[in-house]
Design a protein that fits this description.
This protein has helices at residues 3-62, 70-94, 96-115, 120-148, 154-182, 187-190, 192-206, 220-239, 247-268, 284-314, 319-337, 340-366, 376-401, 410-443, 450-464, 468-471, 480-483. The protein is mostly helical and 490 residues long. It starts with a helix and ends in a 7-residue tail after the last helix.
Length: 490
């Protein structure tokens, strides 16, 4: 072949190569990268579900009241929420890949520290460091996905992202129940070590190091104000009605929180470098997904804690038996992940959020009717239905929140959304513990009983219905770019 012929064929070869590279990039963007990030998040979701199922056993081993163990969950969420504003800045400054790997290593090391804990304060300290690691892991992983995926593919990519993460709630109750029933409870923390090793290897090999060229200076004052505000709010809920602190000190915590948030609002109004961009909340779809969806997520924070108290402490089940029953909820959620994108394309965000949100509230309230004599198959059926529809609600809210957010604001939007989620979930746990404590005092019983737990399901289930006030105000075509649906038929 002559040199001229080679020159003439070069464009064709280059075109084929580019097309092949484009296809490989699309495949990686479509499921490889979301699956790897989701698999790394498996470590975090597995830990949270295993931990909630093991609470009564750990309380017995450490000789503390089971209700006090909710501190291990709220402190994890508090540390995560306080450190979340920094995670987006670190990802922009250092690169998302480096921060993501560092967070997995820290999570594994802090898990080992939890396993070595000899008393409740040591366990709480380990959980705090786990929360710091989680504050970087989830939002930074989501940020990589948001910056590498077109909006038209985002709902499908998020479904892939959450499927490995959903395996944690599926296998977590059974795994946790098996460990604490037949082995030592400390192994619920040690199992994170091999998961972290595999996760780091996969992220290093396949995940791009997304970072910003221009990074704003770190807002130290904003971090301090939001951190103190969140701490005051969460500790206020944690001690409300618990007789652990004088009433005036609890009121002081709420006052401190209010003052800090007010000062931050004044600080951030005209500050382009504020750690949390409050103007994001003016975006209607973001406001609905984060603020309106926050009332729904309160129940999600309370559910694992309440079910552990009801089934193990109230009904007297072993951790293994309770795990066999509650895993069905996450199994239903995992099934829904495969059907969420076509449902959203068919009905649109508004219709799905309104109808499905009401169904989720009703199923959560139904948990209040569980009794020691309720057939186990019926409990598992209700839990499975609840998990199925909650998963659709999560997917819808997570997708809608970013429907109108530009790429230049994705970092702060992801951080703000994750911080709000951690906040409302920690409020849910604190609210659940407070309701159980108040009902126990009202009944005059010295020990926790099942009928002191069930009213909390009804109260928190009713709170989730407040989110409907945001959903019904959405336009019919809200978020249509996210799922490819056009028009106002919803």
């Amino acid at each position: 072949m002559s040199p001229a012929d080679r020159v003439l064929e070069t464009p064709e070869i280059t075109s084929d190569a580019l097309e092949s590279a484009s296809e490989r990039a699309a495949v990686a963007r479509g499921w490889v990268i979301p699956a790897i990030i989701g698999s790394a998040l498996l470590m975090q979701t597995l830990e949270s579900t295993v931990m909630s199922n093991a609470l009564p056993t750990i309380a017995h081993a450490l000789r503390v009241d089971p209700l006090r163990l909710n501190m291990t969950m709220t402190m994890f969420l508090l540390a995560s929420a306080v450190c979340l504003p920094v995670s987006g800045w670190m990802a922009d400054k250092l690169g998302a890949k480096k921060v993501f790997i560092s967070s997995m290593v820290l999570f594994a090391l802090s898990s080992a520290a939890c396993g070595f804990a000899q008393d409740l304060p040591q366990l709480i300290a380990g959980r705090v460091f786990q929360g710091v690691a989680a504050s970087m892991m989830a939002p930074v992983g989501r940020l990589v996905l948001l910056r590498t995926t077109p909006k038209s593919e985002l709902v499908a990519a998020m479904s892939v992202l959450t499927m490995p993460a959903m395996l944690g709630p599926v296998i977590g109750p059974i795994l946790g129940g098996t460990i604490v029933t037949f082995f030592n409870w400390r192994w619920i923390f040690y199992i994170n070590l091999p998961v972290a090793v595999v996760g780091v290897a996969l992220v290093r090999a396949f995940v791009p190091n997304v970072k910003e060229m221009a990074v704003s200076p770190l807002d130290w004052l904003g971090i301090a104000l939001t951190g103190l505000g969140l701490a005051g709010l969460i500790f206020g809920f944690e001690n409300l009605g618990r007789d652990l602190m004088p009433a005036w000190e609890v009121a002081g915590l709420f006052a401190l929180s209010a003052v800090c948030f007010a000062l931050y609002w004044r600080h951030a109004r005209n500050n382009p470098h504020a750690i949390i961009d409050l103007s994001i909340f003016r975006v209607p779809t973001f406001q609905v997904g984060v603020v309106g969806g926050g009332f729904f997520r309160i129940a999600m924070g309370a559910t694992p804690f309440l079910l552990a108290m009801l089934l193990q402490v109230g009904f007297g089940m072993s951790a293994f038996r309770a795990g066999l029953m509650t895993f069905i909820s996450a199994a239903g959620a995992l099934v829904m992940k495969t059907t969420a994108p076509p449902i959203l394309r068919r009905f649109g965000f508004r219709q799905v959020l309104v109808v499905n949100g009401f169904v989720c509230s009703v199923t959560f309230i139904a948990y209040a009717f569980f009794r020691p004599g309720t057939p186990h198959w019926l409990i598992m059926t209700v839990l499975g239905i609840g998990g199925f529809f909650r998963s659709l609600q999560f997917t819808s809210l997570n997708g809608l929140a970013y429907a109108e957010i530009g790429q230049d604001r994705m970092s702060r939007a992801s951080t703000t959304s994750a911080m709000m989620q951690q906040l409302v979930q920690s409020v849910g746990i604190g609210l659940a513990a407070m309701l159980i404590h108040l009902v126990t005092l009202w009944k005059g019983e010295p020990r926790l009983s099942w009928d002191a737990v069930t009213p909390a399901f009804a109260v928190i289930g009713a709170i989730t219905m407040i989110s409907l006030l945001w959903y019904v105000r959405l336009p019919p075509d809200a978020g249509s770019d996210m799922h490819g649906r056009r028009g106002g038929r919803g």
